[in-house]
Amino acid sequence: MSPAPTPARWPAEAIWQAVAPLLPGFTVEVLPSIDSTSTELMRRARNGRLEPTLLVAEEQTAGRGRLGRQWHTGAYEGTGMVPALTFSLGLPLAPREWAGLSLAVGVSVAESLQPALPGADGGQPRILLKWPNDLWLQDGRKLGGILVETASLAGAPGEPRYVVIGIGLNVLPVLTQGLSTPPACLREVDSTLTAASALQRIALPLVQTLLGFAEHGFAPFQARFAQRDLLAGRGVTLSDGTQGTAHGVAEDGALLVHTARGMQAITSAEISVGLLQGWGLGPASESEPQRLEQQIEPQNLRLLPPGGQGPASAQPARAAATTPDEPPACLQAGMFDARQAEALRQAAAQLPAGSWSLEPVQAAGRWMVYLGRFPDEEAVARKRAELRALKVDYDRPGAALEPGLSLGRYSTEEGAQRALGQLAGQGVRKARVVQERTDTPGYTLRLPAVSGAQRAHIDATLQPALAGKALRPCG
């Protein structure tokens, strides 16, 4: 008789101890089987159960992926091994802007699983991010996906919403038939990973990411997303046949696509993998909508096969940028400092008088949870060791506050004070809140009435002076 399989051992207690100081009332639940972890947390939210919860399932019988598609998982029968990590994290959250949340989550998960990205030519698997919700290996095989959903709590604008982050990752090789190219799995990246150890790597950084996103939005994650951007530099086509090249993402998480009409900011899209298929890689089709109410402008975007053309016929795309058939729209970009504004003013002088304006704005100050000043770098090193033992992140505070350590930057003093209280609960002593930056003046470019026929000329005129910022609809 063969021995009974050893059940998976989940680090629920360790995760709870690490996260509870950040999320009062936090709980961890591990279930042997459920229809869908995300569906369950949304059910609870609708019934008034709004506590922060990490819900893990060893098997999902009706997991939901993009466009409501079914996603099933199950253990290797009779082995006790869990081949896929499927979990959802639910908590109340009130970010200033929701746009880009799934991208920030993707950055957190990818960095937790592979902190150092191997070189492109090193032969090692690289975890990349496919806008807006997927994790892929660089060889064109999907590793996992992210689904973000929210439920209203009080219904008032600006009030917290209950957000559910659902994540599914293949851990062991997928035992399936009928696929010419099998999906990727985490064992290809790290042969020691199990579903349980992967969860322990992901959980705390994911919570820290969500709290950071609530304070700062997507902008601090933009450069980190760019390091793993699967689409950057690749040819794509919109569903109306417009072709272009993906140029990364904007500060709000929008996909930037350069077309003959100029740069377009795509706020949500379904992206298929025609390019990867042209290389003999990838499954038949993939897609990903943003499932947030703030991102309800779906476009159909398709990657071009090498040397190929876009689809002969398709439904019209509803792009963020104006098209010749649309009425004039208000566009804006910014903010810009005084030097950037002067360069932009000179470029915009080529446009018709009255068609644009540079409006003064004020950027709110920034606050820091700060430790220091220390007498010397040796004292800083000792404090770093203490913080590592407490599992508290830190970085350098900037020249004006050296030698010292920053434990987080916040857009309001109140946010910094809340973080200070959470850090005190983790055992951090002698930290304090300081103002890192006072309110900063700047400028926003505003074009109140841009027609589709004007857009290409405006893009060509202003693009060199926009300092990497995209024109977007006025808000």
List strands and helices in order, with pairings.
Elements: H1 12-19, E1 27-31, H2 37-46, E2 53-57, E3 63-64, E4 70-71, E5 84-93, H3 101-113, E6 127-130, E7 134-137, E8 142-152, E9 161-170, H4 195-216, H5 222-227, E10 235-238, E11 243-249, E12 255-259, E13 262-266, E14 268-272, H6 274-278, E15 298-303, E16 329-336, H7 338-348, E17 357-363, E18 366-372, H8 377-389, E19 404-410, H9 413-425, E20 432-437, E21 440-450, H10 452-462, E22 472-473
Parallel strand pairs: 1-2, 14-15
Antiparallel strand pairs: 2-5, 3-4, 5-9, 6-7, 7-8, 8-9, 10-11, 10-15, 11-12, 12-13, 16-21, 16-22, 17-21, 18-19, 18-20
Helix pairs in contact: 1-4, 3-4
Can you describe what's shown?
With 475 residues, the chain is of the alpha+beta class. The chain folds into three domains: 12-227, BirA Bifunctional Protein, domain 2; 322-364 and 439-475, Alpha-Beta Plaits; 365-437, Alpha-Beta Plaits (2-Layer Sandwich), CATH 3.30.70. It contains ten helices and 22 strands. Helix 1 packs parallel to helix 4.
